[in-house]
Amino acid sequence: MTDFALEVRDLYAGYEGVPVLHGISFEVKEGEIVAIVGANGAGKTTTLRTVSGLLRPKSGFVKFYGEDVTGLPAHVMVRKGLTYVPEGRRIFGKLSAKENLELGAFKEESREVIEQRLEWVYSLFPILKERINQKAETMSGGEQQMLAIARGLMSAPKVILLDELSLGLQPSLVEKVLQIVTEIRRYGVTVLLVEQRVLEALEIADKGYVIQSGRVVMSGPSKDLLESEEIKRAYLGM
Ligand code: ATP
């Protein structure tokens, strides 16, 4: 048995003719919150897309609870228990909050189970219960981000990948949304998140990886990274 929910080794990936990841490696233990941080364009989204099966790596491997899942398509990964919440939310604006949530449980056939999951996500995000029949596009940015996370949780993942939750949110909401991540972990969901907001992400994570131009340049327990002079200078503006 492996200790790792997710083990990524020497991942190379990119887009047609554009190499982006140059040998990324990291591990996530069950129950951890792990943050991958770095500047715009460092390759954070590409990392999550590759791990979640939306993008095939050129080389390297991804193991999920010890099983080699490298290159498996995203819908297979969801069934295995790994769900990706994309950057920019990608919710269906014309559908209601509830309809968006139900789409997240697409692999589930039992109505009873879907209802239980809805109750679970409403307990995490009470505001969504108030918005049940509201069109998603009419919700505020913060509410839409909560809806996107909740939709991801509707698949009852073991591991959830969260892409840039803070994007486009006002500062007061960034902390609120990130605090919800710590709640998610209490339900036994392991979290891998990527963020440009280095400080806020490391504050809630157990461990962090700093990536630059598709390579891990620093990693360690979040509290060590937060104390690092290099991080303070390069990312925290101190
Ligand atoms: P951001 O916060 O801006 O999303 P990021 O760290 O997540 O940054 P990526 O989105 O992974 O970075 O992008 C890494 C590099 O890959 C960038 O140079 C970007 O221009 C390039 N890239 C991203 N998507 C594509 C694509 N579909 N086709 C070609 N190049 C792409």
Automatic annotation (TrEMBL):
<dbReference type="InterPro" id="IPR052156">
    <property type="entry name" value="BCAA_Transport_ATP-bd_LivF"/>
</dbReference>
<dbReference type="GO" id="GO:0005524">
    <property type="term" value="F:ATP binding"/>
</dbReference>
<keyword id="KW-0547">Nucleotide-binding</keyword>
<dbReference type="InterPro" id="IPR003593">
    <property type="entry name" value="AAA+_ATPase"/>
</dbReference>
<keyword id="KW-0029">Amino-acid transport</keyword>
<dbReference type="InterPro" id="IPR017871">
    <property type="entry name" value="ABC_transporter-like_CS"/>
</dbReference>
<dbReference type="InterPro" id="IPR003439">
    <property type="entry name" value="ABC_transporter-like_ATP-bd"/>
</dbReference>
<keyword id="KW-0067">ATP-binding</keyword>
<comment type="similarity">
    <text>Belongs to the ABC transporter superfamily.</text>
</comment>
<dbReference type="GO" id="GO:0015807">
    <property type="term" value="P:L-amino acid transport"/>
</dbReference>
<dbReference type="Pfam" id="PF00005">
    <property type="entry name" value="ABC_tran"/>
</dbReference>
<protein>
    <submittedName>
        <fullName>Amino acid/amide ABC transporter ATP-binding protein 2, HAAT family</fullName>
    </submittedName>
</protein>
<feature type="domain" description="ABC transporter">
    <location>
        <begin position="6"/>
        <end position="238"/>
    </location>
</feature>
<keyword id="KW-0813">Transport</keyword>
<dbReference type="InterPro" id="IPR027417">
    <property type="entry name" value="P-loop_NTPase"/>
</dbReference>
<dbReference type="GO" id="GO:0015658">
    <property type="term" value="F:branched-chain amino acid transmembrane transporter activity"/>
</dbReference>
<dbReference type="GO" id="GO:0016887">
    <property type="term" value="F:ATP hydrolysis activity"/>
</dbReference>
